[in-house]
Amino acid sequence: GGGGGWKNRSVPLCVALRTSARPPATVLSTVMATHQNRRSQSAFFVGGVTRHASAHNTVGSWDNHRGLSSWSQDIQQKPQDDYTNIPPGILAKLGTNLHLQPNHPLNLCKHSIQNYFGSVRERRINENGIEVTNPSTTISPTTPTTSTTPTTQQQPPLFTFVDDISPVVTPKQCFDDLLIREDHVSRLPENTYYVNRNLLLRPHTSAHQMELLCSGLRAFLCTGEVFRRDTIDKTHSPVFHQMEAVRVFSAPELNGRVSRTDGLQDPEAVALVEKNMKYHLESLVRSVFGQNLEIRWIDAYFPFTLPSFEMEIMFNGEWLEVLGCGVVHHDLMKQANLAQDTAWAFGIGLERMAMLLFNIPDIRLFWTKDKRFLKQFSSSQKPGAQPAKFKPFSKYPICKKDIAFWLPSDNTFHAHKFFEVIRDVAGDLVEEVTMVDSYKDAATGRESQCYRIAYQSMERSLTNE
Fold first, then answer.
1. CB-based burial, 287-306: b 16+ in 10 Å, e otherwise
2. How many Cα atoms within 13 Å fall on the side-chain side of residue 170?
3. Per-residue model confidence (pLDDT) at position 80
4. Which of the residues in the chain have pLDDT under 50?
5. Peptide bond before residue 387 is cis, with ω within 30 degrees of 0
6. Which one-letter DSSP state was computed for residue 335?
7. How would you class 261 by CB atoms within 10 Å of its CB: exposed for 0-12, middle for 13-18, buried for 19 or more?
8. In this structure, how many other beta carbons lie within 10 angstroms of the beta carbon of residue 381?
């Protein structure tokens, strides 16, 4: 992943320069042009996945898994334009689907969430936002279970699991359907990977929310790879994994309310749905991190939910945000022909959850194929087992290099573009990139920047030679 070995690449990015933004004969435009010429010859992985219902999982898994090898059969030479910006390093990871690999920490986190919501079987909730339990039901909503086959005493499961759906979406799916305004920064090619102006790699699993609602699903968990142009450090990766959840309530399911016929949203229904959402999310994270976990809710803003919240947990003495959620915006519900219903939704990053749960210090570790990493988590799948804590298996030193360059005079430079070049050349050998100096020449007005690139391999020592 990440473009392969950096030593064999033709672009001399990793040259040791003095720690100053006053650059020698290094001009960024030359490096970027060389990189762009090489990249323009690469093909694109494009979706083309046909969804179908799974018959083997009664919880409702939507089994349309087509990994890297299957997707490669669907490669088409899509037209490129001024938005095309997907490098080979991202294409190499497309369809890897770490969340489907047994014993992988992301797979374990995914299953812990699916097991919890797989045990939610009652449709009606009371005035406190809690499910009304049928006396014949043998499973409590707060008791996770690995069983996916209901007995005659159990209600049928509510949630459908969508584990792999094509990551190639349209701007309409990704932005318009979610009420994201035209001038939002997330639409810019500097922040999102575009196949072309009409297709992109989803930056969030919310891109499938409208599609799944319109398919008739009223409760689902959608998990998959998401892609964002971002900074380079131990907690950020251009490819990571998200889980999106939505649950829709009819008016009678909300403590026996009557459906409105005027097309407006019922404030009391919103309050009940909010209570149910917070109840389940608090129960979920406490089932994962411990029953004594301290939780707080922060008011937030998301275009597609109203009201919106972020959940923070007290972890190792500090508050950490773990997920975003809210009541699905009424305009979105109307688009899905669900104006008389009310729904909640949440999204959670599996890497963040796994790093906290298993004490994994570096997000690059999730992509390693080293057996010393994966074998540490096999015991976590045993019933009643405590989460395994990651034990470092390599302590190779960090090797730092500085690079300085003049910025283009046309103001087209964006740090994310520079980070993309680094990722494509050096791959996962780069642990962190930080700007350490900037300089503006008083006489000419030209600007330059100096970045420090920290290399650290998980498998071998790196040297300055």
1. bbbeeeeebeeeeeebbbbb
2. 8
3. 84
4. 1-76, 135-152
5. no
6. H
7. exposed
8. 14
Q: Could you give the CA distance from residue 170 to residue 196 in angstroms, rounded to a whole number? A: 10
At what angle are helices 28-39 and 415-426 packed, to 10 degrees? 60
Residue type at position 141: P
The CA distance from 56 to 151, in Å, is 16
pLDDT in tens, 372-402: 888 888 765 565 567 788 888 777 788 889 9
Model confidence pTM above 0.90: no
What is the amino acid identity at position 377? F
297: helix, strand or coil: strand
Gap between the Cα atoms of 372 and 451, Å rounded = 33
Residue 328 neighbours by CB distance under 10 Å: 24
Burial class of residue 353 (count of CB atoms within 10 Å of its CB; 0-12, 13-18, 19+) = buried
**What is the spatial distance between Cα 290 and Cα 236, in angstroms, rounded to a whole number?**
26
Q: Write down the residue that tokens 């996962």 correspond to.
A: 428
Residue 274, number of CB atoms within 10 A of its CB? 19
Q: Tell which residue, 210, 202, 215, has the closest CA to residue 160.
A: 215
Is 308 in contact with 278 (CB distance < 8 Å)? no
pLDDT of residue 217: 96
DSSP secondary structure, 385-451, as one string:
PPPPPP-----PPPEEEEEEEEPPTTS---HHHHHHHHHHHHGGGEEEEEEEEEEE-TTT--EEEEE
According to DSSP, residue 68 is labeled H
- Amino acid in position 48: G
Residue pLDDT, tens place only, 187-207: 998 899 998 999 999 999 999
Please tell me whether residue 369 adopts helix, strand or coil conformation. coil
What is the CB-side half-sphere exposure of residue 187 using CA atoms within 13 A? 16
Q: Are 170 and 180 in contact (CB under 8 A)?
A: no
Short-list 395, 130, 57, CA closest to 282: 130
Position 19 scores a pLDDT of: 38
